[in-house]
Amino acid sequence: MKFAVVLLSLLSVGRAAPLPGCQTLLTPVSVQKEQMLGRLHYIGGSSDLPGSRSLAHLMTDVRLDISATSQSHVLDFVQTQKIYGDCSSLVYNVTFENSTLLIERPFYLKEVYLPTDCPDCLVAYEEVTSAGQTFTSLMLFSKSQSVSPADEDNLRRQAECLQMPKPIFMIPDYEGCPDSTPRSEGISALNSLLENRMGHRVARVLDRIFDWLVN
After folding, report:
1. Under a CB-based contact definition with an 8 Å cutoff, are residues 163 and 157 in contact?
2. Angle at 41 between CA 43 and CA 64, to 5 degrees
3. 152 contacts 170 by C-beta, under 8 angstroms
């Protein structure tokens, strides 16, 4: 509840009043570790991270394979994506405790989970802070490769409540990437992207171009 109050208070500073029903849509829900484990398919989302919208238009498959480790509060993530037919994988560990996912170094990432009526889905709200900049993302994952229109509408309403850009939903690629896709260390790769200020400027321009072409 405290996190929801913080979200809603941020929306009220210099912005329009939150829409009716937003508090319910933005109140974090409890997620057990067992719900995280296994394969999750990325369905769609919204983010102000530079380059995220360009990539969303180019990606045809993204999945997370999440497994437990010998440490009770640490999970192993394998993130695999297909961009224009090319597959790649990133591997990294995260802390998961009290329904919250954390990465503390070399950047700070906090992820909580928001309501959805989809029994096989997770809606993740994420804040990433790096070099004095904070970015937010709202993402829908599912054990299945597709969800109902109602589940997509729920994410759209949550994005509207957060005054985030309209979510972009992937067109499922049922072939996906092979499990044998070569893996790279993920934290350093993500950190390099976050710290590249010049790259951010170019990425923002590309985001606007892709959104203009698509819309």
Report:
1. no
2. 130
3. no
> Phi-psi bin for 191: left (phi > 0), alpha (psi -120 to 50), beta?
alpha
Rounded Cα–Cα distance for residues 130 and 128 (Å): 7
CB 42 within 8 A of CB 177: no
Extract the tokens encoding 12.
Answer: 């009220």
Q: List the structure tokens of 88.
A: 């790649």
How is residue 64 written in tokens? 């997370």
Beta bridge partners of 141: 42, 122
Give dist(CA 36, CA 96) in Å, integer. 9
Q: Residue-wise pLDDT tens for the chain (215 aa)?
A: 444 444 544 444 444 555 678 999 999 999 999 999 999 999 999 998 877 887 887 888 899 999 999 999 999 999 999 987 889 999 999 999 999 999 988 888 999 999 999 999 999 999 988 878 888 999 999 999 899 999 999 999 999 999 998 999 988 766 788 888 888 877 777 767 666 554 444 445 444 544 554 55
Q: With contact defined as beta carbons under 8 Å apart, do 24 and 123 qualify?
A: no
* Element housing 203 (H / E): helix 197-214
Q: What is the pTM of this model?
A: 0.83
- The DSSP letter of residue 117 is S
